[in-house]
Amino acid sequence: MALKIRLRPHERLIIGGAVVVNGTAKCDLIIENEVPVLRDRGILREKDADTPCKRVYFVIQLMYVDNRDIVDKHNIYWSLVKDVIEAAPSTAGTIAEISSLILQNKYYPALKLARKLIEYEEEVTGYVRKVQCL
């Protein structure tokens, strides 16, 4: 079944490994085969991967859109999550779920869970900043 995507003006999209940027008008794209697709709101740019959980998300994003050098990406992932769990043991459950998905090559669902990991990280660091200000 084809995937229909409506793009807003100037919206970005990753299709496979290609970054596509829409022009000045809305447009509809129809993708007729199965290929990794990531809309603008789900894309994390490398320069914005500035926290441990965002780096985890970024490497999963790379696995999803480009399966070249997948072993290297997996090695980076395992190293990153080891550090995250050591720093925040409360993330272990979510990371176990993400890791299970990665081992099954289900990168898109892993990305969705990694987004929750980022939200948790922001919540915890926001709380720590608030306590430090008191």
What does this structure look like?
- It is a single chain.
- The chain is of the alpha+beta class and 134 residues long.
- The chain has two domains: 3-42, no CATH class; 46-133.
- 53% of the residues lie in helices and 16% in strands.
- The chain is built from four helices and five strands; from the N terminus they run βββββαααα.
- The chain has helices at residues 52-65, 70-87, 92-103, 107-133; strands spanning 3-7, 12-15, 18-21, 27-31, 37-39.
- β2 and β3 form a beta hairpin.
The domain count comes to 2
Distance between the termini: 55 Å
Helix tally equals 4
Q: Which strand order do you get reading across the main beta sheet?
A: 3-2-5
**What is the residue-averaged pLDDT?**
91
% residues in beta strands? 15-25%
Molecular shape: globular
Written as H for each helix and E for each strand, in order along the chain, the element string is: EEEEEHHHH
Count all strands and give the number: 5
Largest sheet: 3 strands, antiparallel
Which structural category fits the helices and strands?
alpha+beta
Sequence stretches where pLDDT stays below 50 over 5 or more residues: none
Rg (C-alpha, Å): 17 Å
Helical content band:
40-55%
